[in-house]
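Format notes (please read before filing issues)

Several people have asked whether sequences and structure tokens are stored in separate files. They are not. Every record keeps both together, in the order shown below: the sequence lines, then the token lines. Line labels are part of the format and must not be stripped during preprocessing.
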Amino acid sequence: MQRIVCEQTDLRSAVREEKGGYMRETVSDIQNRRSVKEYKAEQITDEELTAVLEAGMNAPSGGNRQSPVFIAVQNKEWIQKLCRLNAEIAGAPEGFDVFYGAPTIILVLADKNAPDAVQDGSLCLGNMFNAAYALGLGSRWINRIRETFETELGKELLKEAGYEGEYIGVGSCILGYPANGFPEPIKRKPDYYKIIR
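Then the structure lines:
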């Protein structure tokens, strides 16, 4: 299978050779990434999915424990089950699609006994969203994954994926091709950060 992402060593030398060209592109992608609510029915490629998953795998984790695990769901029947359960937990109207028609759902969990479980999983999700945008994919964080994996359906999915042990649901990354492009950037609050020197 062809790799989409560069190896770290190649990327570092490329950055040096082009005087930060790749770095500028990375920062630009982070600043322009937006959450998407409308998706095409077309499934993303295996290469795109793998690239997003590998981006998540390369997120930092507390003590390098690598506590998170990912379950990528493309099975339509499972997506429908998860959608109904998530909507029920959210108290959404019957028939509301909490996944906005995205054809791929990546569920992120982490070892419940790891001291930084939620932080580790959240960093993985951040990497996934940024990688998705860099690949031209739409993405969005969907909540209520902790509650999902406290139910029998969530435990059944965990077992079907082949994971054993105690896990806490952190969040999910929905993925797909944007049906109407990416939303325009929104204005950020003026006091988002302070610098103390």
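For reference, the curators noted about this record: The longest strand covers residues 167-176. Strands lie at 68-73, 104-111, 138-142, 167-176.
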